[in-house]
Amino acid sequence: RLMSMTGLGSPCGACKFLRRKCARGCVFAPYFCHEQGAAHFAAIHKVFGASNVSKLLAHLPISDRAEAAVTVSYEAQARLRDPVYGCVAHIFALQQQVMTLQAQLASTRTAATNGTTATAWARRPRSSSARTAATVAPRPGTTPSARCWPVRRRRTT
């Protein structure tokens, strides 16, 4: 969740995580709110480092900073979930889904061209939605979960 202000005297999520006073022109303040920003920023700091992200945001036009903050946060969360592939694993899973759906579409078009669609639909079980969802969904354990921004992770102590 992006915020334009941090509130009355409370530091932004990044400054709260870094345990420092939030300066008036803090580059993180508009993008990391006091309530949830610290949790999101923790992943960013662990993966990229606060200084690197600060420099990145400072060198971008203000109009692009919000999207950059969301993107960096998503990439950091993905890298923590899957240290080897990061967000590429999610992209790969989506590409696999597209290929599966394209194959199903081609099969359906071929069946329609051959005139077998009516008989194929008549023989099809009524509860096919669960089977279709299982076919399209990525196999468990091969990719990270498809959760998108914001991702809340519980700390294990």
Topology of helices and strands:
Elements: H1 13-18, H2 37-47, H3 50-58, H4 62-81, H5 87-114, H6 117-123, H7 128-136
Task: Give a brief rundown of this model.
The protein is mostly helical.
Largest sheet at a glance? Answer: none
CA gyration radius, whole angstroms: 22 Å
How many helices does DSSP assign?
7
Percent strand equals under 5%
Average predicted confidence as pLDDT = 76
Protein name: LOB domain-containing protein
Family: Belongs to the LOB domain-containing protein family.
Organism: Aegilops tauschii subsp. strangulata (Goatgrass)
Biased composition (Low complexity): 124-144
Features:
single chain, 157 residues, mainly alpha, 7 helices, elongated, disordered N terminus
How would you explain this protein's 3D organization?
- The chain is an all-alpha fold and 157 residues long.
- The protein has a domain at 13-81.
- 57% of the residues lie in helices and 0% in strands.
- The chain has helices at 13-18, 37-47, 50-58, 62-81, 87-114, 117-123, 128-136.
